[in-house]
Amino acid sequence: MKGLKLTAVRYLRYLYQAHLSSPRHEREIYHTLRQAAPITRIVQVGVGDGALAQKVIQFTQQYAGDTQVEYTGIDMFEAREQQDGMPLKQAHKCLVATGAKIKLTPGTASMALPRLANGLLKTQLLLIAADQDSNDVNAALSWLPRMLTEESVIFWERLGNDGLHLEKLALSDLSAPAPARRAA
């Protein structure tokens, strides 16, 4: 009976997140996470206020079983020009409280991904925030094939005429090859 209650609660949470939560454009993330479950390796470029990171981590934990969710966040934190994000220490404290394994890296996508790509193998979910410079993210695309698999899901948040929306991509949509590097 207890298992049935947990399943019902999980399903009600899914219904809320996928159909009623706000902001509205993020609802597709939860629908996809449930379909692709279990998702345990998440990378987010542009952590911002950390709200989406918290919600996504908590949602994926429902379907992860005994496997710990691993989250890597890349952001400028205190160095953000808009000063609208969280400081690094505050973000870490906030996200560690979810129980996931948290790794936060200061910097832009083009600064951080070359350093981190080999340690982020088999990333299942990549989230790119709308506040990230498109040219900078495009400069880092060549590192994504090292991290992602054909089953990985990429959500790139974009600002359009009608507000924010998510563009759902797959690895095959990103055609930049990984740069060859010589061993030292």
Provide a quick synopsis of the model.
The chain is an alpha/beta fold. The protein has a six-stranded mixed β-sheet with strand order 3-2-1-4-5-6. Helix 1 runs antiparallel to helix 2, helix 2 runs parallel beside helix 3 and helix 5 runs parallel beside helix 6.
Question: What does this molecule look like?
Answer:
The chain has 184 residues and is α/β, with parallel strands linked by helices. The chain has one domain: Rossmann fold (3-Layer(aba) Sandwich). The chain contains 7 helices and 6 strands, in the order ααβαβαβαβααββ. α1 runs antiparallel to α2. The longest helix has 18 residues. It starts with a helix and ends in a 15-residue tail after the last strand.
List the defining traits of the structure above.
184 residues, alpha/beta, Rossmann fold, 38% helix, 23% strand
